[in-house]
Amino acid sequence: MSARTRRQKAALAEEREESPNGNGPLLTPSKTPSKKRSRSALREEPRENVFLFAPNLIGYFRIVLAIASLYYMPLHPRTCSLLYSVSCLLDALDGYAARYFNQSTTFGAVLDMVTDRCTTACLLVFLSSAWPRWAIVFQSLISLDLASHYMHMYATLSMGGSNQSHKKIDPDRNWLLYQYYHSKTVLFICCALNEIFFIGLYLLSFSSPMLSPSLLQPVADSQPSSVQPGNPAHPQPSNLFASPWSAGALEMARANKIDSTFPWILTAIAAPVMLFKQIVNVIQLVNASQLLAEGDLQTRRANRKK
User: Fold this and answer.
1) Which of 85, 113, 135, 172 lies 20 to 30 Å (CA to CA) from residue 62?
2) Residue 137, CA distances (Å) to 92, 113, 140, 246, 272 in order
3) Distance separating alpha carbons of residues 99 and 116, to the nearest angstrom
4) Pair type for strands 17-18 and 25-26
């Protein structure tokens, strides 16, 4: 065999491998057609950024509006109410965008729920400071809202898997909870009127002397404390408080009352739905607790069989 023939066979051996059963050449794994097809398919598959999905972008904008409403909350009730209301209304738009663009994600669902819970909690915190005597009621509502939704989502994801939505309720477990989440109209009305009730209470803290009397009422038969120049006996309200975010500045804003008719109407209409929403929260909390307990029993039985 010539040297040229030996070199040709050596080159051929490098390109091919003899099969174990001696039936002919076998391509190496790195050069198999299936691997080549899978790699080209991966290159051709479009890369998606979940964080830039349309419903999630709406969710980010909701957060911006909520933060802006918190900024105006102590002294500007009209501006705050407008920003807060728009943020809440966009809650329905992001769900529509998720279905329209087929961009429903677990991240989007959690972002939506966390935004709802945080904005409502912030408003209730303000109401607690506006009406200290009722603070324990608002604190209880915050605790119930957070506990109910957290346990519900945790139970849904842990028992149903990561692809399970917290809005998919088994009708056999609880009929009322199923109706609440199954109908988008019922869910929207309940959530919207629940927020409207708290917005009405917020406006009443600026408009109702009965619920929130001002501390800046003039004292009867008060005498000037000083007549010296530069030390006025009755300073202007704008000069009473150096910080615009102090408790006194809040009372000064309340001294300029707004009409309470519209806030009373909002609060009265939304009150029954708000109470129903709290009943649903209690049922949701109990149902999630039972679901988690059933999962614990199943795990314990499975461990005993091992």
Assistant:
1) 135
2) 28, 22, 5, 24, 16
3) 19
4) antiparallel
The CA distances from residue 83 to 88, 108, 145, 199, 292, in Å, are 9, 22, 22, 11, 38
pLDDT digits (tens, 9 = 90+) for 104-151: 888 998 899 999 999 999 999 999 988 888 999 999 999 999 999 999
The helix or strand, by DSSP H or E, that contains position 216, with its residue range, turns out to be: none
What are the residues facing 185 on neighbouring strands? none
> What per-residue confidence (pLDDT) applies to 158?
80
Tell me the C-alpha distance between 193 and 198, whole Å: 9
What whole-number distance in Å separates Cα of residue 156 and Cα of residue 278? 20
H helix intervals, 161-260? 175-182, 184-207, 247-255
What count of Cα atoms within 13 Å lies in the side-chain half-sphere of residue 158? Answer: 16
What's the pLDDT band for 254 if we cut at 50, 70, 90? low
The one catalytic residue among 91, 94, 112, 116: 116
3-state secondary structure of 63: helix
Nearest to 145 by CA among 282, 302, 292: 282
274 touches 197 (CB < 8 A): yes
State the chain's mean pLDDT as an integer.
78
Q: Cα separations (Å) of 107 from 31, 118, 163?
A: 39, 16, 11
The residue to which tokens 């050596």 are assigned: 10
- Banded model confidence at residue 27, pLDDT cuts 50, 70, 90: very low
User: What local confidence, expressed as pLDDT, does residue 7 receive?
Assistant: 58
Among this protein's residues, is 116 annotated catalytic? yes
First and final C-alpha spacing in the chain: 67
The upper half-sphere exposure of residue 222, i.e. CA atoms within 13 Å in the direction of its Cβ, equals 9
Dist. CA 52–CA 65, nearest whole Å: 18
